[in-house]
Amino acid sequence: MSFRSVIQEVKGEIGAISRRGFRSRPGRVRRVAAAAEEPPDESSAAALVMRESCWTQLPPELLREVLARVEESEGWWPRRRDVVACAGVCRSWRGIVREIVRTPEASGNLTFPISLKQPGPRDAPMKCFIVRNRTTQTYYLYIGLTDALTDDGKFLLAARKCRRTTCTEYLISLDMNNISKRTDTYVGKLRSNFLGTKFTVYDAHPPYAGDVISKDQSARVIGSNHLSPRIPAGNYPVSHISYELNVLGSRGPRRMHCAMDSIPVSAIEQGGTAPTQTEFPLSYHESFTSIPFFKSKSVRANNSTASLLTQNGSKLVLKNKSPRWHEHLQCWCLNFHGRVTVASVKNFQLVASDESNPTNQEHDDVILQFGKVGKDMFTMDYRYPISAFQAFAICLSSFDTKIACE
């Protein structure tokens, strides 16, 4: 068999696996359907085992070459799902795919769920959009499949607004149908103060390697009667967002100030690096860092973050780019390069603040921009050193009504 035939056959098998995975329904439905099917006969079972063993026993050198070519040829969704399907074939395939697939910083692609927690590309922004559902108070983040402002998109994250007595929370999840803390897909939250002028972004997983709960703390949490061991209740503060009060009612857009607690200012310098999560915790025991019943644990996680930033220097601070007043249009204007079409007080661009720049030079590179393109449609473009999760959380803070800031 020629090398080209091997590649075509492998891609055909990957496509079949991908289609089966995308057409399948949620887990409970799959289990019921599987139980209702007739048991396969011995010949079909033997054929399945033979086919699986055929692919799993490929020489590692050949397999690595095939998977590398699949990775290079699939740059955009939905075709990129073939790369994800490769990782689900078997353990050997999964290990090689993880070696081949690079982080969004280097490749400019979002491949696996952990990519949403990793810094975006350095060279060009990652172009996404947010869809708002006013009825259910939910927000959905998609990555565009084309260069158009909006298209069908590939779903990335979902958030649900929850009103509390003293604050507002936005729960962020990988599942658009089940947004809750009591699921495996919960990744973090955004919490506001009473006035809606200050926000804190909490990550459900450690932003740094090794920043996990100790064994004695883990035993205490797991032994609690209030929580199930499978609830990912991590509470790592990774950024703080504040909106400047507009007491005098002066004209102009909102003024934002974002302190990225988990990113040192050295990340935006030449050769600087930002913390990058490589995988989700294997055990939910590692996610128990801050529980409402044990307030001191949130302080421990924050102290760990602060100590790491002390070693790398001060934390990165972002501020909204100052717009200019257009005399002819009689409005404040920013250059969104065609990515925003509707004027709104929610529109903003974030750049590195001067106070976080040791050379006191003005930063012109926009790290995050957010703007309106329809009644319930908004674009979100982000780049290094922030992640899709952090960018989404910052944009969610703009949806809250802030009478004191406008």
Summarize this entry quickly.
The protein is an alpha+beta fold.
Description:
- This protein is an alpha+beta fold and 406 residues long.
- Among the domains are: 50 residues, Monooxygenase (Up-down Bundle); 222 residues, Tubby Protein, Chain A (Alpha-Beta Barrel).
- It is built from 10 helices and 14 strands.
- The strands form 2 sheets. The chain has a 12-stranded antiparallel barrel.
- Strand 1 and strand 2 form a beta hairpin.
- Helix 1 crosses helix 5, helix 4 packs across helix 6 and helix 5 packs across helix 6.
- The longest helix has 21 residues.
Structure characteristics:
Tubby_C; Monooxygenase; globular; 406 residues; twelve-stranded antiparallel β-barrel; 29% helix; alpha+beta
Order of helices and strands: HHHHHHHEEEEEEHEEHEEEEEEH
Largest sheet: 12 strands, antiparallel, barrel
- In spatial order, strands of the major sheet run 1-2-3-4-5-6-7-8-9-12-13-14
Which architecture name of the domain at 116-208 and 232-273 and 312-398 does CATH use?
A: Alpha-Beta Barrel
CATH superfamily of the domain at 116-208 and 232-273 and 312-398: Tubby Protein, Chain A
Helix content, binned percent = 25-40%
Separation, N- and C-terminal Cα atoms? 69 Å
- Per the principal axes of the C-alpha atoms, what is the gross shape? globular
* CATH structural fold name of the domain at 116-208 and 232-273 and 312-398: Tubby Protein, Chain A
Number of strands: 14
- Overall average pLDDT: 74
Low-pLDDT windows of residues = 20-39, 210-232, 283-308
- Binned strand content: 15-25%
Specify the structural class: alpha+beta
What is the radius of gyration?
A: 23 Å
